[in-house]
Design brief:
Blueprint: E1 10-15, E2 20-28, E3 32-37, E4 50-57, E5 60-72, E6 75-83, E7 88-90, E8 102-108, E9 117-125, E10 129-134, E11 147-154, E12 160-170, E13 179-185, H1 192-207
Antiparallel strand pairs: 1-2, 1-4, 2-3, 3-6, 4-5, 5-6, 5-7, 8-9, 8-11, 9-10, 10-13, 11-12, 12-13
Length: about 210
């Protein structure tokens, strides 16, 4: 686990009410961090609010516990937070993976990208993320921490739309030459209950 993401990297702030908010890391010290909330955020933070600062790494989604100290006097989007504990990995393998037949459309959250949409089969799925096979792109298109949006189709049900970050992308020796991409969902996922329902139904069918 690295000490922290690079300055200027995008992180996700998770509040105690279950909301998640995009921000940029502008400072990381031994005792404090400073983040700048995205301009379109609807967060209404107060000093002393507890917030998890999260970012993806190969071991999983890293969670850093913090307590907000206050915002910049000239910019309500820039907040300083005291670090109140050690970071920990929220590992994808902590959640059971379901081999649910499905299909995913993956969109890079980067309008400047030459190719912003790719698709392919779901290889496995959990409450924390998914592994999928993509047929066209190169691994360099999906570097770790790349923000993406997914449209997930599972067995004829309504599509799920989920935000996340690339954990890794790698070429495979598969005959179909699919690129294997693992995405960790931003937590909490807005459609978490619906996603969990699909996984529970799969578990019941497998065990029954």
């Amino acid at each position: 686990m690295t000490q922290h993401p690079p300055l200027g990297a995008e992180v996700i702030l998770r509040d105690q009410s279950g909301g998640f908010h995009r921000a940029t890391l502008s400072y990381y010290g031994d005792a404090r961090v400073t983040v700048e909330l995205a301009a379109d955020t609807d967060a209404r933070f107060q000093p002393r609010d507890r917030v998890l600062v999260t970012w993806p790494e190969p071991t999983g989604l890293i969670c850093l516990p913090t307590q907000l100290a206050g915002h910049h006097p000239d910019d309500v989007l820039v907040w300083t937070a005291d670090i109140v504990g050690d970071p920990w990995p929220e590992q994808r393998r902590q959640h059971e993976r379901a081999n649910i037949p499905g299909y995913v459309e993956l969109y890079r959250a980067d309008p400047a990208s030459d190719q912003t949409r790719v698709d392919g089969p779901v290889l496995d799925l959990s409450e924390a993320g998914l592994r999928c096979g993509l047929s066209e792109p190169q691994a360099s298109m999906f570097k770790p921490s790349t923000p993406v949006e997914l449209r997930l189709s599972l067995g004829g049900a309504d599509d799920l739309r989920l935000p996340g970050r690339v954990l890794y992308a790698r070429s495979t020796a598969r005959a179909d030459k699919l690129l294997e991409v693992v995405v960790v969902f931003d937590r909490p996922v807005s459609q978490a209950e619906e996603l969990r329902r699909h996984i529970v139904l799969w578990q019941l069918g497998r065990d029954g």
